[in-house]
Every structure is written in C-alpha cells, then in structure tokens.
Amino acid sequence: MRGMNNTQSQTFSDQLLAFAIPGRNSRGRVVRLGPVLENILAAHDYPKAIRHALAEALVLTALMGGLLKEDDDQLTVQIQSRGGIASLLVCDYRAGMLRGYVQHDAERVAYAGASPTLQTLFGSGHLAITFDIARTGKRYQGIVPLEGASLSRAVENYFFQSEQVPTLIRTAISDGPEGTLAAGLLVQHMPEGEEGRERLHVQLDHPEWEHVEVLAGSLRHEELVERSLPLEEIVWRLYHEEDRVLINPGTELAKGCRCSESYYEQVLARFPKEDRREMVNEDGIILVDCAFCSKQFAIQD
Fold first, then answer.
1. What's the per-residue H, E or C state across the chain?
2. Of 60, 205, 218, 265, which residue is the least packed, with the fewest Cβ within 10 Å?
3. CA nearest to 256, candidates 63, 58, 79
4. CB atoms inside a 10 Å sphere around CB 160
C-alpha cells in the first residue's frame, strides 16, 4: 500500500490497531480479542447468549478506547435496562486493559435461545458511554436509547446523536476449538481534516466519507475472525487503492481488573462507621465480591 508503514504484527489477536486515511479525512480502529476475551468470560459461568453479548461489548469498548489519547484516560460503557434477561452490562478500557461483566437472569436466558434480539436481551434500556480525561479531570458522558439490531448499531447511534461524527462499525464473533474469538472495525469521518483538530462542522453525506463507508461495509465476518490474518492485512484489503494510509503499531491488550484489598479498604473507609458496622459478619469481617473477576476480599473493619 502506498504510504503505509511496513509494521507487521506477530500476534493477530489481543491487539488494537489504529489507522488514518488523510486524503479522505477518516480514521479507524480494528481489534481482535482471543485469550484476553476468554479470560474475562471465564470469571463467570455465562450462557452462550450472554457470552456473545459481552464479547461484542468488549470489542466495542476496545475500539472506542483506542480513540483515547493518553494512557490514564478511561472509557466506560454501561447498559442499564428493565424487562430484559440482562439488567446491567459494564465494560471499561484504560491503557490497553479491558474488563467487563453482565448481570442476567439465568432462568430467563435458558428460554431465550442462542441468539436473542437486543430487545429480548435488554428490554427497555439505555446506553451510556463515558470518557474520563485524566489530564483535565473532566468527564464526558453521552446517553442514548438502546435501539437497533445490535450493540454495534446502538454505538453508531451514539456517535451520530451525541458526537455528530459519521461512524461505521462491524463486529464478528466466532466459537471454535480454540475458544471464543471476537473482532471489530470502526471507521469515522473527521470533519475539517486531520484527527485531533477542533470539530467546526459535520457533513454526514460527504462524498469522501461515503467512499470510506462503502469499502468498510464490504468487510466480511470471516475476515474479521480469521486468526491467521494480520490486522494490517484487513486494512490493506479495504484501502489499498488510497494514496496514503497511516498505521500505528498495534496496542497489546490484556485483562485489566483493578480490584485489590487496598482498593476496597479505601472504598469502605468512605462509609460512615455505622454503615460499616452493618456490613460486618460475625467474625468482624466485611466480605466484598468483585463483579468483574469474581474474587472475594475479606476486609477487617
């Protein structure tokens, strides 16, 4: 590819790759999750429908997390719902570290089949996406109704409604002998040129974006979850006719639960003594469960 740097990855999963197409005022992210995904899913005995919902959410979290500029910045994706078989989904990303979990009704999931609709999964709910920017200490949050055929479509709606940034997302999930694999592609049109410039206006029907969008839409499910296919190759297949495509070296991803005994001690210290007294068991211990990794911590009050 003309103008593409010759970075080749030796690991084709658990990696996040960033790219930009300056001539089309567009940027993108592509990610594939393998062992990291399995490690996160293994924390709970999730049924298949919930595993796939969380896998898609983790891919989306990684794709959006890849838009953050500093390692200390954090992205959080949260779904709260009523009337569905899943009541809460939370994922977050910071410095290449991913974590996530789902609260669900196991009995109702058993009757929902292997591929329930988004509405069956979450009923009436909303999607909240939060960017915590460490350098400024500011938090930016967008909340949109949980609508569309998938979580990916809901995130596209978020960017359209909250950010006014034309966005296309493709995700894929595959189960096989080596475990569950999930992958995704995100492309966006950046008005007024290069990534990082202040947004002055948005053109949702810009011909440059239509070109990028059509090519991204041609990506096949099988390509995303092909374990032997480098992420750079995916970008090359889509945009090899462009004059210049810039690719940044891939970020290696890992499971990143930040729970620890000292962390929960700090959290509990914020509660009044009267409240902590009601939490202790007969041995004077407060037992705290981490929803992300299923570890239990015994905190001496």
1. CCCCCCCCCCCCCCEEEEEEEHHHCEEEEEEEECHHHHHHHCCCCCCHHHHHHHHHHHHHHHHHHCCCCCCCCEEEEEEEEECCCEEEEEEEEECCEEEEEEEECHHHHHCCCCCCCHHHHHEEEEEEEEEEECCCCEEEEEEEECCCCCHHHHHHHHHHHHHCCCEEEEEEEEEECCEEEEEEEEEEECCCCCCCCCCCCCCCCCHHHHHHHHHHHCCCHHHHCCCCCCHHHHHHHHHCCCCCCEEEEEEECEECCCCCHHHHHHHHHCCCHHHHHHHCCCCCEEEEECCCCCCEEEEEC
2. 205
3. 58
4. 15
CA distance 72 to 63: 17
Distance from C-alpha of 192 to C-alpha of 62, rounded to nearest angstrom: 25
User: Is residue 292 very low, low, confident or very high in pLDDT (cuts 50, 70, 90)?
Assistant: confident
How buried is residue 83: exposed, middle or buried, by Cβ count under 10 Å (0-12/13-18/19+)? exposed
What residue type is 255 in one-letter code?
A: K
Spatial distance between the Cα atoms of 301 and 263, rounded to a whole number of angstroms: 14
| Cα atoms in the 13 Å half-sphere on the side-chain side of 202 | 13
> Is the pTM here over 0.85, yes or no?
yes
> At residue 254, what are phi and psi to the nearest 5 degrees?
-150, 160
pLDDT band at 191 (very low <50, low <70, confident <90, very high): low
Integer CA distances (angstroms), 116 to 1, 47, 204, 244, in order? 41, 12, 32, 41
Q: What phi, psi does 158 have (nearest 5°)? A: -60, -50
Q: What does the pLDDT look like over 164-186, one tens digit per residue?
A: 889 999 999 999 888 899 999 99
Strand pairing category for 15-21 and 246-252: antiparallel
2-52 pLDDT tens trace: 344 434 434 478 999 999 999 999 999 999 999 999 999 999 999 999 999
